[in-house]
Amino acid sequence: MNELVPLSTATLNAMPDGVRLPGYDRQALTAGIVHIGLGNFHRAHQAWYLHRLFDLGLCHDWAILGAGVRPNDAVSRERLIAQDCLTTLIELDPTGMSAEVCGSMIGYLPVEDGNGALIRAMTDPAIRIVALTVTEGGYYVDAVTGAFDTTHPDIVHDASNPETPRTAFGAMVAALKQRRPSGAGPFTGQSCDNLQGNGTVLRQAVVGLARLTDPDLADWIDTNCSFPNAMVDCIVPATGPKELELVKSFGIADNAPVTHENFRQWVIEDDFCNGRPDWDKTGATFSDRVHDFETMKLRILNGGHQVIAVPGELLGIDSIAASMANPAIRGLLQKVMTEEVVQHVAPVPGFTAPEYLDLIDRRFSNPEIADTTRRVAFDGSSRQTGFVIPSIRDGLDTGASVTGLALVSALWARYCQGVREDGSKVEPNDPNWDALYQTAGEARTCPLAWLEMERYYGDLARENPFSNAFERWLTMLNTDGTEAAINAYLNG
To answer: What does the alpha-carbon distance between residue 289 and residue 349 come to, in Å, rounded to a whole number?
Structure first.
């Protein structure tokens, strides 16, 4: 192998042949967006759309300033700053791989206690959008009521210390408090997380936090800022040793490469209070039907991920593609989705729900995507409640079957017992793992103890069509095992 070229602005012209490079002068870009949460998904998705827009010679005043509010974001910052915030994106397609260097992020703000640098950046009138990828569980939503959780310690802290907040939302409120009298005006808050009504949820967090300390400011934010809903979609695995070696095969030394599938979708409500980039010119869709798009994606793709990742983990299967190669798990996905999910999902331009399921089946089966079952099964307390339980409620509301979805919930309970079928330990894989593990242990002898976690299931323990099936499945999982229970469902 030839000597690797370290990734940086200065070395772009020395990059190996075949690597797609930015076709714009990064030195001429200016920031218009602060993005909080610079994980792999953002860099393969939103940052890419902007990067390709810059390639068209458009919107060069909309570059990204990266930011983070968690202590471990400092590690990511150090890694990216060392390579001028450039990222190698490697597309993994069964027909062949390709690589391009994405250059739409031009800086990464210091990660500080009190978030001073972040607040200062967001007060700049040039910043017109503050975007976030902070995970589904990062919006302080009460799982039972859906309301903003004002009792969470982070929110209590920010309400008591509004000038030195701990959360992204506290920093946004602090910046808007300064922008209002300065004349800088409002900005758009743009959630890019997998949440139903993600813009609405973000508005709830920002306005709700502001209302705890400054009701007049809260009213101003609610009236003047915009929070567009959006649906985002691209399968982006975590970066590990395999990905670090893969980028070397292209001749690049990159300490933060990102791999992704050859599919992206971004559907956005066109509600921006202070301008926006022309993302539609690089493939994004502006639509007033975001809810229908996101329902299809969240119920079938994200819900489907939970259907296959949890039994895959229990059976010691490492990847999503390998889980799809297991006939029982693939059969579970097809039967649950076909019989209990797709009938509750409206068609959207370009796809009916069954057609989208066929697309998801192909995407999940892509052997080049090394997406681990452990990564996808992470944070079931947010993902099961966000992606699976809504389909259960749809079925109960319409009198449809929820037997397979009850099995999916029982598999999650079995997973949280913390041991796989082969006896190996499941390391903690949820922010609420300790409580889940304890309840899963109780559910070995009293299965309904699991459904009595009202913060996740609400009143579903009292819905007999679901709770009776759940009790039967969890008992079978504990006595006969994962494959036996899935096959019983498939043959039932």
So the answer is: 9
Fold: same for 5-288 and 291-490:
no
Q: What is the β-pairing status of strands 105-108 and 63-67? A: parallel
Please give the CATH topology (third level) of the domain spanning 5-288. Rossmann fold (3.40.50)
**H/E run at residue 270:** none
Domain ranges of the chain: 5-288, 291-490
Q: What is 291-490's CATH number?
A: 1.10.1040.10
Give the pairing type, strands 285-286 and 265-268.
parallel
Per residue of the chain (492 residues), what is the pLDDT tens digit? 579 999 999 999 999 999 999 999 999 999 999 999 999 999 999 999 999 999 999 999 999 999 999 988 999 999 999 999 999 999 998 888 999 999 999 999 999 999 999 999 999 999 999 999 998 889 999 877 889 999 999 999 999 999 999 999 999 999 999 999 999 999 999 999 988 899 999 999 999 999 999 999 999 999 999 999 999 999 999 999 999 999 999 999 999 999 999 999 999 999 999 999 999 999 999 999 999 999 999 999 999 999 999 999 999 999 999 999 999 999 999 999 999 999 999 999 989 999 999 999 999 999 999 899 999 999 999 999 999 999 999 999 999 999 999 999 999 999 999 999 999 999 999 999 999 999 999 999 999 999 999 999 999 999 999 999 999 999 999 999 999 999 999 998
pTM of the predicted protein model: 0.87
Q: How many CA atoms lie within 13 A of 402 on its CB side?
A: 26
